[in-house]
Task: inverse folding
């Protein structure tokens, strides 16, 4: 038996206060205002994302259609590996 004088060994108990974190991101916590440089960086990043939006790709000649089979795991049709 492990323990001395009736004490329990390796028993983890939760404290009365529970788990609290000073760095929590709760919605009621006031947010710090962003610096002008941070606002400018966020705006530039949004413009880059909009510019990098997927463009229409030309149709594949003789292809099977659909999405990229290697990416989506659809590598075969009727037991034969295709589109490689």
Result:
């Amino acid at each position: 038996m492990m323990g001395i004088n009736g004490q329990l060994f390796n028993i983890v108990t939760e404290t009365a206060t529970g788990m609290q974190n000073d760095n929590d991101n709760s919605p009621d916590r006031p947010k710090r205002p962003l610096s002008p440089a941070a606002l400018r960086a966020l705006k530039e990043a949004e413009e880059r994302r909009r510019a990098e939006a997927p463009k229409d790709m030309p149709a594949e000649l003789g292809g099977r259609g659909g999405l990229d089979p290697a990416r989506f795991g659809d590598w075969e049709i009727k037991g034969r590996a295709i589109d490689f």
